[in-house]
Structures are given as C-alpha cells and as structure tokens.
Amino acid sequence: MELEVTHAYDSSLDRVLGAFFNEQHILQKNADVGARNVHVDECNRSDQTGKLVISREVRSAREVPGILASFHKEWNRVRQEEHWFRKDDNEWHCEFRVHIEGVPAKIKGNMRLQGHQNNCINYVTLSVRCDLPLIGKKVAKFLLEDSRLKIEREHAASCALLYAAQA
C-alpha cells in the first residue's frame, strides 16, 4: 500500500533542509507531536549527502483495532533512517526506512525536496507492506493511515518551528 503527500514550506530549501538536520529542531518537533525518549543516533550532512537516524517512542495517532493490538502497543519504539543526496542546487532526494519494533511490516519511502529562494515543496511517498497471512493487508492499511496522520502533524510542527525562528 502506498501514500503520497505534498508539503509546502514558506522557507528556502537551505533553511528547510538545515532544520531537517538540526538536532534541536528534531528534538523539539518530536516533543511537539508527543514522542518520547527521542534520540538522534546519527546526523551528518555535507554539501552533497546526508544521513539521519532517529529513534523514538510514539503512540498511535488513531485507535488500534483489536485484531492488531498484539502487534501495536500503546507506545512503540520506532527507528527511522534517512539517506539524503543533492540532485542539483534546487533539489535534494531522500530514501528512508522506518522500523517499528515488534511490528511485522516493512515501511519505506522517499522524499524529493525542491525549492527556490523563499519557498520549497517536499514530495513524500510512503510504502507499507505486511506479509502476514489473513491480516497483512489490515495491518498495512492501519499503519499507512496512522503514518499519514503522523506525517501531517510533523509537518505542522516543523512549519511552526521554522516560522517562529524566522520571526
């Protein structure tokens, strides 16, 4: 199952990418969306590439159906690994993977961050796959919708932090 979202920022590409790789921004954004035990395990960026690894505990953004309760607990440990590379002066690409401890699903995706002087757009694609017999599609559908809600909350928190820093 796949999801595509587009997020606009009223900030330059350099400013948005800088925030994505700023440890204080990452920690505050995660606090603002209710994550706990957030750790930036790796945060490196050069002029051409970047790698970001974040681990945290998160709650589901929606009620967990009974059939999925044995996999999806109240708090879930999540590890997200992002590999960024510059395509050109106005565009960066990212490939990422998300691992939810104890949940038998594969979550991966990509981002394409394009921008100009005063604004940029992040095109996000997310894919969720669960191969469990009988309930795999239900697990994937739940995780996809839950991820969509979390992605939107993170975008709103990032924008608020970016705009507060610009004021």
Word description of this protein:
The protein is an alpha+beta fold and 167 residues long. The chain has a single domain, classed as 2-Layer Sandwich (Alpha-D-Glucose-1,6-Bisphosphate, Chain A, domain 4). The chain is 29% helix and 44% strand. It contains 3 helices and 7 strands; from the N terminus they run E-H-H-E-E-E-E-E-E-H. It has a 7-stranded antiparallel β-sheet with strand order 1-7-6-5-4-3-2. A hairpin with a 3-residue loop joins strand 2 and strand 3. Helix 2 packs across helix 3. The longest helix has 31 residues. The protein is globular. The N and C termini lie far apart (40 Å).
SSE map:
Layout: E1 2-9, H1 13-20, H2 23-32, E2 36-45, E3 49-59, E4 75-88, E5 91-100, E6 106-115, E7 120-129, H3 136-166
Antiparallel strand pairs: 1-7, 2-3, 3-4, 4-5, 5-6, 6-7
Helical stretch count? 3
Number of domains: 1
Classified in CATH, the superfamily is START domain
How are the strands ordered across the major sheet?
1-7-6-5-4-3-2
CATH-defined topology = Alpha-D-Glucose-1,6-Bisphosphate, Chain A, domain 4
Terminus-to-terminus distance: 40 Å
Strand percentage: 35-45%
The count of β-strands is: 7
What structural category arises from helix and sheet content? alpha+beta
* N-to-C order of helices and strands: EHHEEEEEEH
Low-confidence stretches: none
Radius of gyration: 16 Å
3D shape: globular
Mean pLDDT figure: 93
